[in-house]
Fold each of these.
Amino acid sequence: MPHNLRLPAVRWLGALIVLLFGAFVALPAAGAATSGSHPQSIGRASTASVPKVLRVGTEGTYPPFDFNQNGKLTGYDVEVVQQIAQRLGVKVQFVQIPFDSLFAALKAGRIDMIADQITINSERKSLYDLSSPYVDTTGVIVARSSEKNIHSLADIKGKRAAESSTSNWGDIARKAGAKIQTVEGLDQSLSLLQQGRIDVLVNDQLAVKYAIRVTGATDVKIVGTTPDASQSAFAARKGSGFMPQIDTQIAAMKSDGSLKKTYDKWFTVQPKVPSTWDTIRTNLVPMLKGLVTGTLPLTAISFVAGLVIALGVAIARMSNRLVLSGVARAYIAIIRGTPLLVQLFIIFFGLPELGVKFSPFPAAIIAFSLNVGGYAAETIRAAIQSIPRGQWEAASSVGMNYPTALRRVIIPQAARTAVPPLSNELISLVKDTSLASTIIVTELLRKAQDAAAPSGKYLELYSTAAVYYLVVCLILAFAQDRLEGRLGRFVAR
Amino acid sequence: MSDLVQVSGLAKAFGEHAVLKDISLRVPAGSVTVVLGPSGSGKTTLLRALNALEIPDSGSVRIAEVEVDFAKITPGRGGRLSKEQSRLIARYRAQSGMVFQSHNLFPHRTVLQNVTEGPIVVQKRPAAEAAASARELLAKVGLADQADKHPFQLSGGQQQRVGIARALALRPELLLFDEPTSALDPELVGDVLGVMRDLAQEGRTMIVVTHEVRFAQQVADQVLFIDGGSVVESGPPSQVIADPQQERTRTFLRRILDPL
């Protein structure tokens, strides 16, 4: 076991999350690679004005550059962008996207510019319009405090490292011969390092120092620096044409001292380490907002749409028409036979390659509705088939055809039978919507992640999220009892 | 008196097992026919064929103006019929009203709604008119004050009488009763048989499958004894019940009337 574990459970939870996410990084990365052939790399730079609403992509989990504090996106990069926009008289709309999806999002036109400590290198210079640098920094090598053999990049050959796969630091570590495990961000690699799951990480010295200060970690230390100083810049699509105007403002901010002032605010002043209670308290409302504006509507809309699909599929499945019932069987088999997360990724990351692009929220709605449709179809079919044959015969006898008998006689009774299993599915769905956090829907878990990244308080914040989920599910279970009673009141027992 | 129902050469097999073999039958308008027979004799299948709940393999049935030649009705997979065929079957079915052994009332609807369901939903009669005539029918079967209850709140005999009112509400030419008292407690049987006798006295055409021999003696114009899917003996009750000609009929009646 690793050393100096103050709160083992915190680390374990963090590691679990890391493992979960580590597995999924591959897909967005693949998306980035394929959309790289977008025909937008026109060589000659033309000039164009900065969009009236500048959409800026940032990961939002990289303190002190960009992160969520008290439910609000803030940090050095965020403030610099805000000041530039103010000077230019344009509005900024920040879009939070995992680091490894940032360049894909830029190419896909979901955002206009990236502000996330993009280190200037020759490859990026050729692929993107880069601004002039707005921060100078250097890379550092971080290892556990007990580490004795790592002092420079030369020593990390063959060591286990954790990096974002498309980051500059990842490239450096890879070239130095480290075995790279991909993660979403620095907070995750730091946790892995503390847990002894990796040996080393390479990252920005400003970010590392900040993280060590904020989390008060004593079990990791900076053991060396990368040879070259690095400079960070904003990135836009090649040929976007508005970088000269951004550069003008960066220059102005350098000369009037405002860039330095912002720098000092984030990098030299000691950050206040909030207490556990403060962390939870300040995030209660943002997380509740995530629940109310993300999790709940996602659940409600998907469930209703899913039930409609399920009813149609159940009826098709019972049809005498071989093609119709075959299609229904195949649909159910595919939905039940593949992970919900994979379905979600195919719709959000996969379909855009076929030219079908959904925003995160609609993509999540579609994935969850289809999923509920597949599962609930079997529940509804079972409920319909549990209605005694005599009811069908009585309906026929009074002259009803099949659809009328279904609607007037069978489904109202089947509804009673279906309530418990469908409630199960609804309660599962409430929790399954947390998967939408992976496609950047701002729901409850995403809010918890945003809060956990800068503070490192995984146990506290994820437990708070768990309590929110639990409360919602308990309320639903109570509602289920009431509904069963209501629907069951005409049935003799 | 003209025949309301004319059944000729009706046959039906479930797989290898022939349930109906060449059954023919005439029912004069306004008469009561009681069908007797041991269980498995095919009497219930015959009744269900008259309401198209079973589709016979061959033979034909005419009820009032509607005649169906079942040799030409050929259900596909899962009993699916062509549009034309199902339209004919729907017209045929509308000629008769069925009262089931286990009543099969709709548990989620009130007594009144059970009776008005067919008239409103299928026959598209105005709701107010359907409700008014449903209340009359409920009064006729002695349940005027139960209209707003749900089926589970009623006794078995009351439920069966709602079933009768539901069948009557469709204004069929012919009423079919499938062992309407077999599932009832003995002390509730009389109420149901009483209602059926009243209907017979009104001149309704009825076919009743039952084991109530006394009811047959008192009410039936014609008794049919069926065994093994064929009509063994038929005629007025004074003949078939009081003086059966066939040994099988005699054995059956002895078992029913004197089980020990």
Amino acid sequence: MAAVQDTVDQVRSVDVDQYKYGFETNIESEKAPKGLSEEVIRFISAKKDEPEWMLQWRLDAYQRWLSMPEPEWARVEFPKIDFQDLYYWAAPKAFKAPKSLDEVDPEILRTYEKLGIPLREQEILAGVEVPEGERTKIAVDAVFDSVSVATTFKAELKAAGVIFMPISEALHEHPDLVKKYLGTVVPVTDNFYATLNSAVFSDGSFVYIPPGVRCPMELSTYFRINEKNTGQFERTLIIADKGAYVSYLEGCTAPMRDENQLHAAVVELIALDDAEIKYSTVQNWYPGDSEGKGGIYNFVTKRGDCRGRNAKISWTQVETGSAITWKYPSCVLRGDGSSGEFYSIAISNGRQQVDSGTKMIHLGKNTSSRIISKGISAGKSNNTYRGLVSAHRKADGARNFTNCDSLLIGNDCGAHTVPYIEAKNPTAQFEHEATTSKISEDMLFYCMQRGLSQEDAVALVVNGFVRDVLQQLPMEFAVEAQKLISISLEGSVG
Amino acid sequence: MAPLLEIKDLHAEITGGRKIINGMNLVINPGEVHAIMGPNGAGKSTLSYVLSGKPGYEITSGEVLFRGQDLLAFSPDERAAAGMFLCFQYPLEIPGVSNMAFLHTALNSQRRRRGGVELTSPELLRKVRELGRQLGIDPDMLKRPVNVGFSGGEKKRNETLQMMLLEPYMCVLDEADSGLDIDAMKVVAAGVNALRSAERSMLVITHYQRLLDYIVPDVVHVFAAGRIVHTGGKELALELEATGYAQYQNEAA
């Protein structure tokens, strides 16, 4: 299998330092004053020249947040965060929204190139005659600290009627759409981190696919935290109007730093009648060192609303990074006949802590959902699947299938499964399967007896374990994810 | 002619546990087929693990030379690449990994290590299909995950397929007939016999004589209490079938 070979080569090429995205870009930046206050929120809003209603929205969220408790139910441990010791906004200095890539600071472009996201190349390729089907085009929005620095393929998307731009820009160009949908899936008051995000969110992507349009290419956003002591609070809003389709991918990395950094994002998806949204994440924030020093706190609220009949929302995530992950991409199955899917690979190594899963809320009639979760724990890490499947009283014919598998590598890690199932309708059919297994020495020995090195053997066994989920990712990203998995697990055996 | 495998006064135990191999000596020349027979619990399977480098066993003294090299200094994968193949009594299952992908990864890992040319997918596919035909392997079995849900017979055929593809110098067959009906045993034996050559040797571990009707050995050893206590020609196997192992067990004790 060529992909496995790629994986193996990739593992070989990786140096002792396993996190290869840990470099820092030296670029002058402008920050908001440290700490959080009404003034800081006004500062952020003013920087973006936001309409008055947006500022008010933020301030309301802030007031609300002040009175909210931090959630403590997740199986994660960390010292209390001092929210006054953070910067809530940072941007490359003298930053003006670029009109084209030529206006983007070359240092930032180089950063994305290092990350394997050549923004310029993507754009140039767009102008070259490439035979249909030979190259998949991917439109990229790149977010550097608090601002979006570049969005590619704008013109081509515009021709198709697709809106794909930084949300800060959408506030000016499409205020009605933003106002109509923002906060309707994840309300301002939803939870501690989502409310914080509502008060201070900086940038993120806005996507609108008009009725009946199938988005002509994959859309993608790459998030990069560069600044020290800076939180990243991006906000993504994706709307697929009636009969529309879009596939969207986000990726994220950060420099290696000794202190922890906070990432509290909110993602809202809205699918109207017969619309479909496929949302994939390859999350590779810096996980901290092997002793648990540093790393990103990834406290993220992601939710999709199947608002129309026969709408479909599918989440696929490959989670390898972050010191702590607290994340439950969910689906509200409101429209009759709507369906939700959640495919997840969550890998923890070193001292990483993962508490992740999904919620499938069945409200409409004949709604269905499917959950496939693969957790892999290695080192001294802890990996928890936490999920809720519920059927409302009126959700006749609700169906769910859940499969949660955990794989343990070594003797010092933990895997936990916490499923909540609530059926208030007698016609609901919920199925739940779960397994926990360990990579056995016998299995590795069998592979090694056939000539595979120990690393190859682990990669092979793990790739077999996560295959069902990898198949859900767009092709190019599946290969990328496979490499990432091997790197994350390097040195986890023996 | 230099021996292919030479075991000199080998002592081995389960790490932190019982002593299993107890002063074993054996010389196998290229092209020879040796059978090791003995009662349950004599340490026959342990011998196969020690030769292939399975973790959990400790060599307390002695030496094993394989093609003139110190075999015990090699990791299991290095031994495999050097040409040591163990046909498992109970092959392991690897969920989610197709048999074909496994064969491809294994073969090219070995070839790469020996500095040889790696096979492309189509080349491998042709080769595997041909070998599969010889072994009566359903092409569908190549797409299924390695050994998952295979019957006992399918697993053993699959082991034989791997052996034929990897073309080792030394094949150690640990109870190759366990779980096989007579027809399946004939197919497996035919595969093994097809591999017999002047450079390749075999060590057939079994406690029944019947397999040796199909894989006819040059030399038969009786293995008891962790070492070879008696050696003879192929007729020794028939003798053992009639008399049992009791006399040798007493001898060993």
Amino acid sequence: MNLIMTDTFAIELTDIDKRFGAVHANNKVCLQVKRGNIHGIVGENGAGKSTLMSILYGFYQADAGQIDVLGETYTFTDSHQAIAAGIGMVHQHFMLVENFTVLENVILGCEGGALLADGLAAARKELTRLGDEYGLKVDLDTTIDQLSVGLQQRVEILKALYKGAKILILDEPTGVLTPQETEELFRIFNALKQQGVTIMLITHKLREIMSITDQVSVMRAGQMVAHRDTQDTSREELAELMVGRKVLLQVDKKPANIRAPLMKVKRLTVADSQGINRLKDVSFELRAGEVLGVAGVSGNGQTELLEALSGITPMTSGSIEVLGFEMDAKNPLTPDRLRELGLAHVPEDRHRMGLIVDFSASESALLGYHTDPKVNSGIWLSNSKVEANCQALMTAFDVRPADPQLKSANFSGGNQQKLILAREMERNPDVLLIGQPTRGVDIGAIEFIHQRIIDMRDAGKAVLLVSVELDEIMSVSDRIIVLCDGEISGRINTADADERTLGMMMANALDPIDPLQTMDDQQAFSKQESNQVSSQVASQENKL
Amino acid sequence: MSDVFLTLLLTLDATLRVSAPLVLAAMAGLFAERSGVVDIGLEGKMLASAFAAASVAAVVGSPWAGLGVAIIVSCGFAMLHGFATITHRGDQIVSGVAINILVGGLTIILGLAWFHQGGLTPALNNESRFLSITLPYAQQLAFIPVLGPIYKELISGHNILVYLAFGVVPMVWWVVFRTRFGLRLRAVGENPKAVDTAGLSVIKLRYKALLVGGVLCGIAGAYISTAHNAQFTRDMTAGQGYIALAALIFGKWRPLTVMLACLLFGFLDALAVRLQGVVIPGIGEIPVQFIEAAPYLLTVILLAGFIGRAIPPKASGKAYLKER
């Protein structure tokens, strides 16, 4: 019996097929995951990874195909059965009840009796044991809303283990983590692996696939296109398999030719509706011919920065000098006026601010520029001109399908993003603010978008790039500032930056920087300053 | 002095009687909203069950039969609300309002058709009503200062449904905070996805919550027509369902504070009756309309800032659609 068991796969999927209407989400997908391995699954958005995992977790039922878990064949009709078979899932968006304690969240669905008291006591004991065994420590009586994202994720893992998971599926687990938290997560993965837990990791971060997995499978357009042992493959090969053609992972760029500052931000502070400062004393300069990257874990003031700079959110104090015009809390400039002056803004959240999903592409491509005489005849907006305008943008940025009448919602994320970028960039602005340009965008489109940003820079424009993707920040920008809790917690030239240093800055593990000290940085950050940063990193390491 | 004391006792006594249906309805609303379903149809369910209870009690002659049918009718409307909003993901407010309007008309039409008394049901005799219960030794202990009158006037002398209403409150607390059903109920109203991914059925849980609410509303309705009154009259719930909802918000969806809110509203109501025609020195006669409006004014004023933010269950009002 035991002999046979060691030979079986943890998961064996055979010819899984699933259609949603006209979309063939999974087309005869086969997958074998070895016991006790860490198995990566990569693919572009819409390649069918999430559908496949949802089928495995009993969230959807496959139209055809067979699921074997730990050597036994199952037909899951709901998640309960998948959980009983030993599968646990950590979703990309955590499935936690925010005002419940950790303990209550963990026992939800397996309370062990109609009354809670016994179940809670038993769970407390078991969780303490699991915590010791895998190094998954977390205070069981804290409510979820008090925990950091990294700890919330830990609760999700505990939840799955508590329910007896032998196979753990994680969907994009590192998207919201700092590099340090990611490292910690990988340490937990290894501890779980030691204990014989099988891990399936769904991600688009090829660097992580290479560093943690044993095997990797690639999906493209609903099909499984390749299985590799991780040690026999490379990022380049995986990217090519995902997209179906060769992809440049590194942005091809010449050294920056940095000129005069076009935007000077001085001690910018922005408070939210509850009076809490979301941005505190932020000062920097944005110069012509450079890309200034703004790094940081999501929610540390990036949104407020973009919205204050583009005139959407009022400032509380401080001042901004943009293209020779001054604005402060008492004399704000409207987004409209800023746009006229030559400042363009690509919002972080394309669905909330970038476009109107119910509008046609041609209407979305006109937002903010509807008064342009080019598309108006008298008091009438000319439909044919609006569509011609959109057609031109679509051609310039290779938006597919190139149909101006199609509803904005019916484009893929990458094409929606390209449409917005086209709208803002084709006006040839002098200052371009971009938030999360490649969130939810496929690798192929990322390459294109990054190249366009570099083209803007080389044309002597000033670009501010806000991104939570460190890879993106490091490959596209020339200088980097890091936001942590609304303050600039680090400034560094990209040439001197590495992931570790940026990670420390994102967690504000370096000594705070005096906001005044860097007020008048005439040349790009002095070598001296970045030396200071790296020596601080070194001293941190010594302390550890 | 003793006169004032007695008046106070009698007012409090009336408060309990007026609050009882509010408490029951608010507890019904608590189950619904904790599960993520806004139940503005409390009013309609109470009215329907008041009508059903009075009709059945008049025909059969037993208040218990009336109560049973009232609960069945109320649960029927609760399931209708569930079918519209949980199964078909319809708008919860629209469905609730529709039930209120439907019941408002239906009770009158059925009353006219069945009893030919202008929409009223026949007046109930004592055998077909819930009557006051005198607790043991109420008369004998009345001589004890303070406690005696409190026992006799305030605690003793209510019908069984009043005792039931206030007995339900600690039970609701215990169910919501100490049982598996309660944990799942609270979870499904906060984050149904977490419940779904834990392998539990969001739909079943919400139906169960509505069913519990249906039972409580049925009791509240039967109380109004067969205990507090002795027949059904048109629109006799007179907005108590809405007051119960206000109490629910006021009490921040917690059973004990919700009960206190109901008592406060009940007290204002009882006071309104007491103060009719009373001339207060320096102010003169207080208009009855003002006192009757007081609970609503109070809700608005207190919600506007005095009780802190009332944060409803996060998923309340939203239909659950399983999606990825």
Amino acid sequence: MTGLPLSVRGVAARLGGRQVLDGVDLTLAPGSLTAIIGPNGAGKTTLMRVMAGLVRPAAGTVLLGERLLASLPARERARAIAYLPQGGSVAWPLPAADVVALGRVPHGGGPATGRTDPAVSRAMRATDSEAFADRPVTALSGGERARVLLARALAVEAPVLICDEPVAALDPRHQLAVMGVLADEARRGRAVAVVMHDLALAARYADRVAILASGKLVAAGTPQAVLTPAILADVFGVHALHEERPDGLLVLPWRPLAPGSV
Amino acid sequence: MPASGPPGEAMDGERARTVEEAAAHRPGRWLVPALVILLVAFSALSLMLGPARLTPAAVMDGLLGNGGVAVVVRDIRLPRTLLAIIIGATLGLAGAALQGLLRNPLAAPSVFGAPQAAALGAVVVIYFGYAEVYSPALPLAAIAASFLSVLVVILVAGESASLVVLVLAGLAISSLAGAATSLAISLSPNAFAVTEIVFWLMGSLEDRTMRHVALVSPFALVGAALLLSQGGALRTLALGEEAARSLGVDVRLLRLAIVTGVAVGVGASVAVAGTIGFVGLVAPHIVRPLVGHDPRRTLVPAALAGAVLLTAADCAVRVIPSASEVKVGVLTAIVGVPFFLYIILRRRAELAGAPA
């Protein structure tokens, strides 16, 4: 189930008459964690939805391996690409383990068999959410719920994993932990894409960083190549601390730049 | 390569309660048998109750066609009881399916104005004299009108379907249907048509025959099949539309199947029994906590609970002392509306937080 690249070629998308993506080329490689960053409204979520096969691009193609994503039956696509939407909520007070088990639906599983499904146990262990397996998901704290929803996406065990802001609701310890889980998933051979705003986490955990601004891909490459003071000033209008450390790259937004000083 | 980071060891570690151990806590195994027993009990009671009260033995005799009570039991009380079961189950199932689709416990056919719209559909047919009471034109018109009402509410409420928007849209639809029905009454050419129309407004199971049962059954079955076919999709939809689609659920098909299933079942029910509200709201609510809030496992128990509720209500109207029998639709509304208010009360915080 591992080892499928997902690539978009010249993708454009419109939303309510506004061009939100314009000629984006990007490949999620197996074994690699790609951080997607960019200012608010840059088109990050739309790009994730296009890559997950939930939005048909107005132009361009999405390829899963060598096949057109649009030509795949829904169930096959669901097995190949796990998608964690931004800020997800669960409508009913279902037990957390049942929510995670919904990740097995594309494989013919679900809450009925979820308690004995090893993929569900693995996903809950990986996200440190076993302790509240039986608690209603609506009664969990924001951080606990975010981990359960991540476990739901992990439980699909798809070759491609796309997460839209998975660490936004988490405390620092769990931010690091979740990024570590996603990096582990990449090391197991999955192609992982993570939308995030935290430049420090992107620098520390991503193999590749792609920067979107106004619907265009403005930079893509290793964190060292992309998260440079010049590019960050240009894209985000911030001055960032930047330090090569022996155990990785440290990038920390420090102060906003005055408009026009870029 | 990224730094390996601190997480690995932090996220492992044994937990006292494993996922497997939790399997023992499945709720509600006894629920369906209990509801079936209740349904059998109330059905028996329904066959016994009436102007002439019968003993269980007399009812058995009557069902088998023996004795002087055979006509009473088989031709008067049996159709009435069967209709209570079929229509109650239809309404309970429709409510559970709509609540699952809209991810909202306030959704129900009557909150959407579906029965009122169905009644209008039937009234229009009667008013223009297109159909006599047993014609399939009546249920078809009722189905078409309730389909339209549910569709309009769902389209107006949109995908997020906040409580306030949903309830307001349903209020608008039922007010419109009510006004149009009043117009039909006031423009009625003769007293006979007025009587006929008033019949639709007050849901009742009195004086029905096996022809009514035959009329509603195929529609009820088709509607139930459509709704039950979407159980798995409804459960996945608990995660929201985006996540459900990413798991392979065809949300458009789901929505169409539910709207059609609800319209077919509720429309046909209204065509034979008039408007009977709030069973679809109350029934899923009672069973949901007992099945762990799972939208899929709510469906069948909600149907059974709906059948129990309506059969019980139809027994109650026969024992409430009054000059003429209280209409069962009036009784379900009298009980159902306070229940509706109670749910709103419990979710008041959410309602207050909903964007206006």
